[in-house]
Queue: 2 jobs
Job 1
Amino acid sequence: MIKLRSGLLVLVGIVGLVLYFSVRGLLTYSKNRTVEARSPSKVVIQKSDSPTNGNDGGRQWRASMGDIAASGVVVNCTEYANGQLSNVFILSDGIIITQSIVWPLSPSLLGTKEYETKARDAFESRVAIEPALLEFREIISEYGLDDAESKLYSGIWEIYTIRAQIRQLKRRFKEENILSYGVNSARVLADKDYEFYTIYNKSRLEQAVYYQHGKTRLEKLFGRFPDTCFDRLMSIPVFWNPVVLNSL
Amino acid sequence: MVFYFIKPRMIVPEQQVSEISKDSGYITHAKKFDALQSRTGTHKPLGFDPQSSDSMDKYWNDRYETNVTTVTNIVKTGTNSTRVQITSVRKNKHFGTDDWELFSKIQFQNDCALEPGQSQILDILREYPPARDSSRLFTGAYAAKFVLYNICNEVNRSIDAEIRFESRVKTRLNKVNDFTETRIQRDYERHQEQCLRSWQSINEDKEQYWAVLKELYGDFPKDLFQRLMAVEYQQTF
């Protein structure tokens, strides 16, 4: 009888254990699902520290939306040596977009004296209508980066280009021209035909591409570029597009 | 062993939260706050009922002082143009009170539950020890949302202006005559002025908020402030 009682007790214990974890698991799952559906927010860069080389020697990395990373919303970016960026966006509802864009500043000019001279001239002719450039200079100067003096204006122009790219992205967002940008079969992809979060997620991921690519260039230029410095620079809005220095 | 596993099932807060949240979003979050319990000393009644969204709405709507301060700004743009701007400022009479802190906390955490990206604001504020340890942490965090929203609006307005400017230039180029060049030049100058105004307006918003943070926490470092201004989430994209 005692054995039967203890056996029953163990059985009840096991059933209790199973029930507890199932109910708890279900609750947690349903909570996460709600958050996933409502809250696309931070963009998280993955594998950027250990980029792999693509088939054509391109540098590859991936960015995903932090809170909905598990749902597979992601961009795989390949940066080519000629400044071309190839982005494959995997969005919700099974939408896959392959986008090809060219970064406005040439990789070959980066870090050269010629670039610095051109950037300084461009800075001086633009600063009257674009006061953000002064703030860029002030922030970069604070950080005592390597060769900061000889590369200061190149750095400012790099930041200006990133901020202008973000402004253009926001403009496309307003003009409902997010999905089709840089896509060959543009007619197939009209923003208005898709859900808001699809458009928004794609915009944030594209923004992450600009941030990451721009930051990589800054790191090439200065050897290192602190995140805090980059974040501060990204708080400053610009109102014009930078002159494309390659064609000066 | 059985009691050990049964015990966690006796913890009810989660169940309470999910039940109550059917009635009001505020109650759910108000339950989580210890701020109400930690209000010691004065025993002054709260200016709003955290369990009633109507009461919180009323508290929000009644926030302005009746006295209106008029501010005159004289703005010089370019060499020949001067603009006089007269604005009225009404202060938030709740600002800086315990009630406002609790109100800000409830609202901020409600918003964060919907969009966790906003929690970056709090993360950055907490990097500054006086802000982290301050009893006005959420007052500062909640205020940041409005500044970021205003900046985003201003940027959007400038983008609209840019679109209008380009379309005007396109129209003028379609009807070329003797005045086309002059008119385009005038449009360009006007747009340029508008961009500078937007820049100025954004900077004014930032300066005001920075002053608020300094008032709340004694001081606030510029680098942290700039990082705070770089926070982006759906409402400010």
Note: The radius of gyration of chain B is 24 Å.
Job 2
Amino acid sequence: MASLKRRLRLFFLRWHRRIGVMLSLFVILIALTGIVINHANRFSLDTIPVTSPWVLSWYGIAFDGKITGFPAGKNWISAFQGKLYWNSEPVSYCPEPLIGAATIAGIWFVICGTSLTLISSDGVLIESLSDVVPADASGISGVSNDWLIIATDSGQIRLHSDTLELKADTSQPLATQVATPLPTNLQAELNFKSHSITIERLLLDLHSGRILQLPGALFNDLVALVLILLAVSGSWLWLQRKR
Amino acid sequence: MNSKRLLLFFAGCSLVLVFASTNPVWAQGTYLTKDEFLKQSLGTSYHGHKLWLSKPIMQQLKNIFGHKYPGLRIRYWSNNNNANQTAWILNEIGKVKPITFGVVVNNRKIESIYVLVFRESRGWEIKQTFFTDQFLGASLNNRLRLNQHIDSISGATLSVIAMKKVARAALYLSQQIELTDPVISHQPGEDESG
């Protein structure tokens, strides 16, 4: 009987140690995420967006890096989900394709479909005008004094930046601007407008295992059960030793 | 035979219900272009102007709309033959998308009001003249409210509210203008409008 007890104790001791070592990483992860989650609000983690495309892809959020726009000095003008953005701040509506952006006398002229939006150099909306540009406009070719040179399917035209007068442009056709992909972090910020995944949400999902969906949650359940077993086996071993 | 007819009747009713409950995409679109609105309202001779929104004007617009009006300036047009007649193109969100309205003010009273572009899926009924005619002759009282009662349209409440706000804003703005900043002249025979 004593021998059986001894063998059982050795078995428990061996496996208690082995499982303890195996689970130590998960325990540390759960403990650390738990501590941070406790103070998420204090550190505003519930409002800071997740910007990593790799992490967002885990949530099934398409991040194909295809949000394009036009550089405005150190800033970016882009259209995303029907809104016109100055960097990551929405300034107006842009339900139609963003055609181009050019600056005249410190004011940015942005063409969205047939509408024209004027934005100051610090990103403040001046005015938004519909029905200004012909529907067949395909891009901004450049600026000549106070005139925007716009490429259309039926030829190049000029739009006066102040009077909004339109007239045919007889000068040599110019190359039109091409929209370029926004910087990755800016694209991520714009994407955040539609997904709202915060650092706190990521931590909660890491803590619970939901980051790996159902298998992750089941694995964390298993870890929790094994931790209970470890607690029982640890207590039993301690009691045995005491005797 | 009767049961077949009854079945047909119910099927017809179901189709009507399904059709009525779906978003009427055909309601969205441009009803009147800017040039059509201006020509229709001001004739063939008008000037364009820009009104920069000072802080007091911004504040009053905020009171009228219930939110900050986006932008630092607003364009408007005046009739060359009648300086008291001005046309305003203003946007206001109905439920989620902006509706573009055209308002003509003459002697501080609304002469006509139109829906130029409707982008919402519901509430398009506000474009009908049976509704817009209620605004004709309306002016602002001291509390910047319309002096006429406007009957609402069930199912288009938010669009109605948007139109009332825009009417109030156009009347208020028309009181703030000084016709000193012509942008572009539109004379008979010219193609450009301003």
Note: The two ends of chain A are 15 Å apart (CA to CA).
